[in-house]
Design goal:
Elements lengths: L4 H14 L5 H14 L9 E2 L3 E3 L3 E3 L3 E5 L2 E8 L8 H14 L3 E5 L2 E6 L8 E7 L6 H9 L6 H29 L1 H7 L1
Helix pairs in contact: 1-2, 1-4, 5-6
Length: 190
Amino acid sequence: MSVDYLELWKEICFQVKRHKYDAEKEFQIVAENIFEKLGWKQYLGEISKPTIPVGASNAMIPDLVINKDNVNAYVVELKRVGVEISDRNIEQLKSYMRQLKLKFGVIIGNSIQIFYESDKDKTALKVCEADFKETNSLGPKIIEQLSKFEYSEEKLENFCIGQLKKKINEADIKNKIDFLCSDAGIKYIK
């Protein structure tokens, strides 16, 4: 199946902007429809909202869990689009990832963010973020990775590792530029 991810990204941006002021519960329906467009089916149990027991009398309920072949693939935390994603929201997503023993988590709100926890680091890191703008070139790449049509754990993991390497390289370049522009850097050049 050939999917035009740029066109699909534009449609998702339109839907997100259209529902910018919806309450989180109403936005949940929009998000479920977005994942349906990405190929996941609710009637097959691929999009669910499970209750996760925590201890004897408590439970967690993530907004969405995406399942492939009856195995949890990634968890999705939804926030109202008009509200900034907070550190508390990120910690909530990471908590769901830990409880479900998942490497991947997604937050959707005023942007879409992917988090990844490698087997060796045991700390979920934000690997990429795309604002819901039709011109954002990263957006179509993100939804391609999250789509059922393209999804595999290995492929998503490789994407995440590539995004982390890109962030590290960008930070390294910024540090070098900052050094070269500093008094110490100018002395070094001379």
